[in-house]
Amino acid sequence: MIFNRLNNGAEELRLVTSSYYANADFEKIEGMVVAAESELANVVGGEVMQTIEADYNAGKLTPIVRAAQRAVGFMATLRYFRLNDISHETDGRKVKMDGENERRPFEWQLERDDAMHLAEYYEALDELVTLLMDDKHFQRTTLYSRISSLLVANASDVEWVTGIACSPHLFLRLVPFLHDAQRHVAKRLGSEPLTISDDTLKYYAQSAIGNRAIALFVQKTEMQALPAGAFREAVSGGGRSMSSTTTQLHDYCEHLLRTSESFIHDMQHLRDELAGENADSHVIMPKNFRKNKFFRW
Predict the structure, then answer these.
(1) What is the pLDDT of residues 18-61, one digit of tens each?
(2) Burial 272-291 (b: 16+ CB within 10 A, else e)
(3) Are the CB atoms for 133 and 169 separated by under 8 Å?
(4) Which DSSP symbol is given to 290?
(5) CA separation, residue 49 to residues 5, 34, 109 (Å)
(6) What is the CA 87 to chain-centroid distance, rounded?
(7) 269: Cβ–Cβ under 8 A, 6 or more apart, which residues?
(8) Angle, alpha carbons 167-171-172 (nearest 5°)
(9) Tally of CB atoms within 10 A around 294
(10) Of 184, 178, 172, which is closest to residue 143 (Cα–Cα)?
(11) Which residues pair with 89 in a beta bridge?
(12) Of the segments 75-79, 204-208, 233-237, which one has the largest average pLDDT value?
């Protein structure tokens, strides 16, 4: 665990989140801290998480350790506060009321506070992923090796070829879908996309991969887990029915797949031109020559 090394876990949480009281009982939130750390390990890899924990236990509070603490701290406190909005007692769940000094917050206030915690969590996660990309321990992991074999190799590439805002942590979630899309494009290209030397051909291949990967990601990810951006709009409409939301999401995925296919067609056409082949040899309709026209009664 990356908290409570000197039995002052509550104070450490207070320092990284500014919301958990230093005099609070750390044991009440310890289970949520452990769960948040396990989820973070699923994102960055178990080996990396072990390295971060080893540095923390050795007293090395590196920027990577600090970023990991922030991410874990905000997720753990968010869950702790949600769980304690209602008092869990032996005879059931209750809401504490104190008319003189306190009042229960409105639902919109709770939602806004939750959103702020999540925003801080994702900001810390983005910072952690950015730092890890230059970390020698992370560069020896299987995940980094998989990233290195991608033609669309970072969040900036995804945003450039799709127009969809992509954060560092979102890029990590896209890695398996980018691999799937790259295999599809390689099959249509007839060679490994990483070997492309022509800039325009590379752009077509990257655009085909990026748009297809986003479509696959949207299709296979729970709606609540979708990141902000164009395809999140389909789930954020308050009054819409589930069926209309699903239809909009399906239509958006189909649009992305059609866009990918359009870039694949441009890629194949340019590939043939660069190879000196007749790119129009497959056209079924002949070209229109005015000189060979005749009219018969």
Answers:
(1) 888 777 788 889 999 999 999 999 989 899 999 999 999 999 99
(2) eeeeeeeeeeeeeeeeeeee
(3) no
(4) G
(5) 16, 12, 34
(6) 34
(7) 279
(8) 125
(9) 5
(10) 172
(11) 92
(12) 204-208
* Rounded distance between C-alpha atoms, residue 205 and residue 63, angstroms: 36
Burial of 235 (0-12, 13-18, 19+ CB in 10 A): middle
pTM recorded for the entire structure: 0.78
Residue labelled with tokens 């665990």: 1
Q: How far apart are CA 71 and CA 41, in angstroms?
A: 11
222 token code pair: 């729970």
Decide if pLDDT at 6 tops 80. yes
State how far the Cα of 215 lies from the Cα of 250, in Å rounded to an integer.
9
As a whole number of angstroms, the distance between CA 51 and CA 58 comes to 11
Please give the span between the terminal C-alpha atoms of the chain, in angstroms, as a whole number. Answer: 91
The C-alpha atoms of residue 163 and residue 210 are separated, in whole angstroms, by 10
3-state SS class at 216? helix
Residues making up the chain, counted from first to last? 297
13, 69, 126 from 32: Cα distances, Å: 12, 13, 21
Any bridge partners for residue 93, and if so which?
A: 88
Taking CA atoms, 106 is separated from 83, 95, 125, 195, 238, in Å, by 16, 13, 29, 57, 18
Give the whole-angstrom CA distance, residue 120 versus residue 116.
6
d(CA 143, CA 285): 48
Contact of 199 with 183, CB cutoff 8 Å? no
